[in-house]
Prior knowledge:
Helix content is 73%, strand content 0%. It is an all-alpha fold.
Amino acid sequence: LVAALPEAQREVVTMLKVGGLSLEEVARATSSTVGAVKQKVHRAYTSLRKSALERA
Length: 56
């Protein structure tokens, strides 16, 4: 399911959940703000939730 996400969303989710980075660390690594990272994560989780429900 994660592979189907847009690249920017996939990148931040991977850094947070697999890499164990903090929001601040992800923001620095992607040259983004913490707010932008939070928005990408929220959109990614919403998309993942929708995809999971459609598969159920």
